[in-house]
Specification:
single chain, mainly alpha, Arc Repressor Mutant, subunit A, 2 domains, 11 helices
Length: 211
Amino acid sequence: MTSCRIIMEKASRGCDIMPSKTFLNLPKEKQKKLIQSATEEFSSHNFMDVSINRIINSVNIPRGSFYMYFNDKEDLFEYLLESYTQKLKIIIAESLKINKGDLRDTFVYLYDEITKRIKKIKIEILFRNAFIYLNLNRNKFNYIIGNELFNTIKSDIDKRNIKSIDLEFIFKVLMHNLFMAITDSIHIKDSNLEKEFYIKRLDMICYGFYK
């Protein structure tokens, strides 16, 4: 069974983004080691090449124990994404505050800030895996990147210069554009050129919903 097919089946079942109680009951240090090992694995290999064996061998746990914690590597990856989403909420909230609630300026700032942080902690491949995974699994994208994030920050958006439209949908479009641009920028030498393309696309979107 291909990874894409697995993803779509999981989406149709509406799986929650939660590890088992067995994992949550582990000592915090053991949880931390497993998540750190998983982060390193997803930051070093394309999604299809990620190995559960490498993860469990690095933290010296039996394979059977891993499957008591997570159903499969998709479950594990979604848990990683959820943890990064919590950090993303903070970054977006800070960006909106810095830019006085203006969405266009906020998303220019987010491009620079997130790109800088990704390169600093060297998770370029993990970020690319996340973008591809969420693109294939739109239900997860809407949950992780859309609805939950939007509900957290919507009160901080300056709506005075925005037309009366579906702002949540616009936010998802802006997030998708942001993720796509950052993913592209990881693979090209001229990051300034990619930023120019990103801002052009951002402006085309914004001109549609600003008064």
